[in-house]
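Two proteins follow. First one:
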Amino acid sequence: MLQARPGAFALLGAGNGEHREQGHGPGPCALHNSSYDFNDKILALGLTYWVELSRRWLRERTA
């Protein structure tokens, strides 16, 4: 996609795997893995990132 349009990737770490329930295997694992278990504790962090990014973008365009 970045070859066709300008943009960027933002990666948000999901922890070391301690949040995972029994039966999902040890340690963290990547997306698109049958043992992937999303870490709900990072939702607020991700939301804060996008809200702040939006605020800064809007502030630059209205100044």
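Second one, unrelated to the first:
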Amino acid sequence: MTIQTTISPDGERLVTMSAEDYQDLIDARDAEAAMRAIASGTILTLSGANVDVYLAAATPLAFWRKHRGFTQADMAREIGVSQPYLAQLENGQREGSVSVYQRLARRLGLSVDELLPDEPAVS
């Protein structure tokens, strides 16, 4: 890492470095912040085995519902939808409304983004 310091015309001390070195510093800062958040419990982490289960699940919703210990029937009843509808959301056969995903996310303690599949469901 090559760092140069200079003094601006108004007396301010400036540091010059390559964009790559600057990005490395930003990445290190972000990694440290993430580690603090993990240590404090504000970022959810999964074990290696749970990551494998997550990746094998049909949708993130299917994983998180099971991971949190809910049956489809219980979850459906709590958020006000039918169990078959929830099953279709979980296996990617249907797309849910924003309000349904908001209720699911709230009950599971997650954000809506954490429940949505990476690819749109088949209609």
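SUMMARY FIELD: The radius of gyration is 22 Å. The mean pLDDT is 90.
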